[in-house]
Amino acid sequence: MAVLDILRAPDPRLHAIGIPVEKVDRGVRKTMDDLLETLYHKNGIGLAAIQAGIQKRVVVIDLGERNGIPLKPLLMANPELQWVSPATQKTQEGCLSVPGYYENVVRPLEIRVSYLDENNQNQLLSARDLLADCIQHEIDHLNGVLFIEHISSLKRHLILSKLRKEKKQRR
Ligand code: NI
Fold first, then answer.
1. Distance from the CA of 67 to the center of ligand 1, in angstroms?
2. Could you tell me the pTM of the whole model?
3. Rounded distance from Cα 122 to ligand 1 centre (Å)
4. What domains does the chain contain, in order, with CATH numbers?
5. Is the model's pLDDT at 125 over the cut of 90?
6. What is the C-alpha to C-alpha distance for residues 41 and 2, in angstroms, rounded to an integer?
7. Cα of 143 to ligand 1 centre, how many Å?
8. What pLDDT does 1 receive?
9. Distance between CA 16 and CA 168 in Å, rounded?
């Protein structure tokens, strides 16, 4: 496993569209493992391959625990929303590609998602609350969409101009 470099906005590669995985083979499994190691290294809860410059429809999610019960990490290829609830939730989101900024985003409260797991098995998962929010955030990445595209353009431009300045100072 390896810790991967994460792209930071603004970066055109974050707007690339992920290509569907034909089969979860050893290569895809290695990408999943690397993403998971990177996620733990950065203390995140979700990461998409696009954020590491890998143009594949692969995401990993680990919410840690719920009510003291550890949750298994979710490794997904080709995740696709099959249903979303009309009821919505407002969640404060952040993103490893938009470091340091947190904004409220409104998304469906409950979802059903199909995907291929790390063993190349078809899965259908129902999720709500934070897990549903996180899955939707990661699927957005596979379509080249960052969470700041769900907030007002004024806030988005402010965040992007600050991130641009930070990038310049780093060089
Ligand atoms: Ni993100």
1. 24
2. 0.96
3. 24
4. 12-170 (3.90.45.10)
5. yes
6. 10
7. 12
8. 76
9. 23
Rg (CA), the chain: 16
- Give the tens place of pLDDT for each residue, 78-105: 999 999 999 999 999 999 999 999 999 9
Is residue 149 part of the annotated active site? The answer reads: no
Residue with tokens 């970066």: 11
Location of structure tokens 């099959």: 82
Q: What mean pLDDT do residues 37-61 have?
A: 97
Judged against a pLDDT cut of 80, whether residue 74 lies above it is answered with yes
Which of 103, 138, 149, 166 is labelled catalytic? 138
Write the single-letter amino acid at 145: V
> Does the bond joining 10 to the residue before it have cis omega, within 30 degrees of 0?
yes
DSSP three-state, residue 94:
coil
User: Tokens for 117?
Assistant: 């797991």
